[in-house]
Design brief:
The protein has 2 helices and 6 strands. By secondary structure, it is α+β, with helices and mostly antiparallel strands. The chain is rod-shaped.
Amino acid sequence: MTPETGTAQPAKLDVDVRVYPSKEEGNLLAFASVTLGGCFAVKGIKIMDGEKGAFVSMPDRKDSKGEYHDICFPTTSEMRQALHTAVLGEYQRVMELLAARSEKARPSVRDALQNTTKAAEPPAPDRAKVPKQRKTDKGER
């Protein structure tokens, strides 16, 4: 604590972020969980798509008047910026990883079946390599 203000000096916290992409359509892109300094977890963070791009929405609740209020939130602009940067950075990393996986995706069942069917069929004979058969004399049998 500093003697002048009675508040603790901000310490650089280790921020661990987990992102869970949403499968729903709409403005919700993903959910996130954050662990601060290995000792305080925040769950229910939302990554939303807005007019100016993706943004972080802290966990909130609706009061009796229908208004939403954040349950927990950064109290300094530096911490808010650090938290948003960490969450959006992890979101981008996860989405790039998912995109790379989908490019390397296994073939569909239909493609796999077609490939095995083609492999099971004997190749058509090449007419140039097939020896000509002799015509047999009607007397020979």
